[in-house]
Amino acid sequence: MWNLVRFAASSLSRSRRFSTAIPGPCIVHKRGADILHDPWFNKDTGFPLTERDRLGLRGLLPPRVISFEQQYERFMNSYRSLEKNTMGQPDKVVSLAKWRILNRLHDRNETLYYRVLIDNIREFAPIIYTPTVGLVCQNYSGLFRRPRGMYFSAKDKGEMMSMIYNWPSPQVDMIVLTDGSRILGLGDLGVQGIGIPIGKLDMYVAAAGINPQRILPVMLDVGTNNERLLKDRLYLGLRQPRLEGEEYLSVVDEFMEAVFTRWPKAIVQFEDFQMKWAFETLQRYRKKFCMFNDDIQGTAGVALAGLLGAVRAQGRPLSDFVNQKIVVVGAGSAGLGILNMAVQAVARMAGCSQTAAKSQFFLIDKDGLVTTERSNLDPAATPFAKNPREIEGLTEGAPLIDVVKKVKPHALLGLSGVGGVFNDEVLKAMRESVSTKPAIFAMSNPTMNAECTAVDAFKHAGENIVFASGSPFENVDLGNGKVGHVNQANNMYLFPGIGLGALLSGARLITDGMLNAASECLASYMTEEDIQKGILYPSVDSIRHLTAEVGAAVLLEAVAEGLAEGHNDVGPKELEQMSKEETVEYVRGNMWNSVYNPLVHEK
Ligand SMILES: NC(=O)C1=CN([C@@H]2O[C@H](COP(=O)(O)OP(=O)(O)OC[C@H]3O[C@@H](n4cnc5c(N)ncnc54)[C@H](O)[C@@H]3O)[C@@H](O)[C@H]2O)C=CC1
Ligand SMILES: CC(=O)C(=O)O
Ligand SMILES: [Mg+2]
């Protein structure tokens, strides 16, 4: 099952016929200044003279034509100047200044913006994604200049079916939806959470090559329970408490019906919903619509791949995963999503029941170790609650430090949203781990919410750990030329491929099998040499390459499950006939590339 499937890039010959990525003319229904003000079509000074004539642009731009490459260079020079000019200023000031300059380009010229992003993804991901996107959400009402995406509020009830037609793009492939109730580890940020769908979809364009004209970030504003925002006169969302119960669900239902009526083949990614709605909406829609919850399912796949990497790092066969003791700190959508997937993996590998597979896992929340003795035990956490009779020396609510000392886990995973929970004492206790390479994953975002820093992890838990964090940290200099490698355990390694694979398969649902295939692909992506260096995930630089493989794995599974209905003019029969290599090439060939297409005006 976990055989190391690396799809070799092979001859393009047969698969080229499937490619839609050859730059062709792009139809535009506007002329003149309207084009310059439309970031989808705008090329700024890059419009060739013939195109200026054809599109009524002559005289609206300075006479010199600047090439795409020169525009790229000019932007990067401005960016480097900004870096120089802000040197020494507080991190937050610098990060926001960087986000602003990128956002201005995004607002003006999407083709150039995405070229810059794709080519510099490792440098820019921390700006457009975690951690800076968290800061942007916190300050969104003040930073707001131009709207991006769509906003559906509780006040729009009964209107959504017609509102969805206000979106200017005729086709939408990928939607990321939030209600702003749990933005990273920052809590309820109400309408300001729109920054998250925007950032996630930027990653879709950069990593999965989804056409930016076919993405749609959506905010479902059902109010906020954040007192500070409710009191803020400049807050841009509804100043009312969050809808609850059936009232809440009826808003989400109406939105989902509206989306799939207009775009039956779209995919909706639920993002950063508070736990109760994350699980409830996943159960409610996953058999009806093509959707998934990234925090529950995407995160689980990434964590599982990392845990399997940690088994390999110990020099153990993957089958040893069934014997690994794992402590998960945080019983929310992310922590429970991971446990669900990891337990299923153990049950499959060991050929045992899920009940038996749970014995190696320990779950901790804000009240300590979760056991069956807990009053008001959340139903989603119940399957992972320990029977006190089976955990000698530990009782209900035992603190993290006691659990770590007693269990001596192979892996300690943080999904609590609380910075510093893995304190010095907890990290030092990990030195007694039964593993030769204990895994410490501080997965909470943004950086200040990480359960520990990379430096502290290596300092207190020892140099032989494998470390991962949700937001990026620098590698740690361990002295004597040794480096403590910092992995980024973030769902960005999977969600773009899950969306892309589902899209190109034309499946109407995203199944557990498709999600498992994505996780297996990520797990098998790393070479033995990488793993021995403690490298569990690829560099962000190779995210586009990885995503093509993940997308292909998802697509192949959809075909195997008989769910693939095909995409555009490639039908299910053609998908079935493709080999693995051809599938990867097909996926790669369908990725959008940011180049200036010739614009052709049509009324
Ligand atoms: N790296 C990644 O790819 C991802 C990271 N995350 C991060 O995981 C964190 C949690 O996300 P959700 O599960 O959706 O949140 P959630 O709010 O649903 O769950 C948080 C859980 O942490 C527990 N908790 C709070 N304080 C604690 C403490 N002091 N000790 C132990 N447990 C404590 C709570 O009881 C709750 O069970 C967030 O910071 C989020 O950014 C989430 C998804 C993906
Ligand atoms: C990465 C992510 O999805 C989160 O922190 O919520
Ligand atoms: Mg999230």
Can you walk through the features of this model?
Helix 5 crosses helix 10 and helix 21 runs antiparallel to helix 23. The strands form four sheets. Strands 9-8-7-10-11-12-15 form a seven-stranded mixed sheet, with helices on both faces. Strands 2-4-3-5-6 form a five-stranded parallel sheet, sandwiched between helices. The N and C termini lie far apart (54 Å). It is of the alpha/beta class and 603 residues long. Strand 11, helix 19 and strand 12 form a beta-alpha-beta unit. The longest helix has 20 residues. It has four domains: 104 residues, Up-down Bundle (Hemocyanin, N-terminal domain), CATH 1.20.1370.30; 150 residues, Rossmann fold (3-Layer(aba) Sandwich), CATH 3.40.50.10380; 192 residues, 3-Layer(aba) Sandwich (Rossmann fold), CATH 3.40.50; 71 residues, no CATH class. The site of 1,4-dihydronicotinamide adenine dinucleotide has 30 residues, from helix 14, helix 15 and strand 8.
Q: What is the CATH T-level topology of the largest domain?
A: Rossmann fold
CATH architecture of the largest domain: 3-Layer(aba) Sandwich
Number of domains: 4
CATH superfamily of the largest domain: NAD(P)-binding Rossmann-like Domain
Please report the distance between the alpha carbons of the first and last residues. Answer: 54 Å
CATH class of the largest domain: Alpha Beta
Strand order of the largest sheet: 9-8-7-10-11-12-15
Largest sheet: 7 strands, mixed
Q: What ranges have pLDDT less than 50 throughout 5 or more consecutive residues?
A: 1-21
The bound ligands are:
1,4-dihydronicotinamide adenine dinucleotide, pyruvic acid, magnesium ion
**Helix segment tally:** 25
Total beta strands: 16
Over the alpha carbons, how many angstroms does the gyration radius reach?
A: 24 Å
